[in-house]
Design brief:
Elements: H1 2-8, E1 12-14, H2 21-24, H3 28-33, H4 41-48, E2 52-56, H5 59-63, E3 73-75, H6 90-116
Parallel strand pairs: 1-2, 2-3
Length: 117
């Protein structure tokens, strides 16, 4: 319950996908068995909470229609991404959070319609 409350009250959720190449090398067989189109829950939790999601580029996000810079902030360098955030204002984080949330709702709604037909 505490985690849910924390995420719901967050302006920003920053996470990298464990499936990025730099992380996959040390994951033994587990990392090798996952498809590259797997998306971690932390990313989806951020979108659901209307937080600005800061994450690495992901093929699932692209497939779902998420656009970097509009719906989420793309981390270009996972080892030094905080300097990439210098140009963002508080209002930018809020707008990206709203856009990402809308994109998630739109995607889920479109999937619901496809399932019903």
């Amino acid at each position: 319950m505490e985690y849910t409350t924390l995420v719901k009250s967050s302006l920003v959720v920053a996470t990298t996908s464990i499936l990025q190449e730099s992380h996959r090398k040390g994951m033994w067989m587990f990392g090798k068995s996952l498809p590259e189109t797997t998306l971690t829950n932390r990313v989806l939790e951020g979108f659901a909470a209307c937080a600005a999601v800061i994450t690495t580029k992901d093929e699932c996000l692209k497939f779902m229609g998420f656009l970097p810079g509009l719906d989420y902030i793309e981390i270009l360098d996972i080892h030094n991404f905080t300097t990439e955030l210098d140009n963002y204002k508080l209002s930018d984080f809020k707008m990206i959070g709203i856009n990402g949330h809308r994109r998630l709702v739109d995607f889920l709604t479109s999937q619901e319609v496809e399932l019903k037909t």
